[in-house]
Amino acid sequence: MEITVEDQGPGIAEADLPRVFEPYYRAAGASACGRRASRLGLAVVKSLVDAHGGEIRAENMAPRHQDDADHSRRSLTLRVGGV
Prior knowledge:
Heat Shock Protein 90; three-stranded antiparallel beta sheet; 1 helix; about 25% strand; alpha+beta; single chain
């Protein structure tokens, strides 16, 4: 089973992609939109996916249309029932 999550955000700097699943990591210039954040969400998701033998990755997607901005995509793959 594969679950893909996409958003229309500005994407993630290539240098930051390998670190987005680290607890408390926040990329330079990232905005919390004025909200307090624990920065644990993706680290918790990675722990859960790993515990179930799955894989999670983050990547930037190219724009779909010429007028679209880059956006980011996080996808996770869960192996169900040892498959």
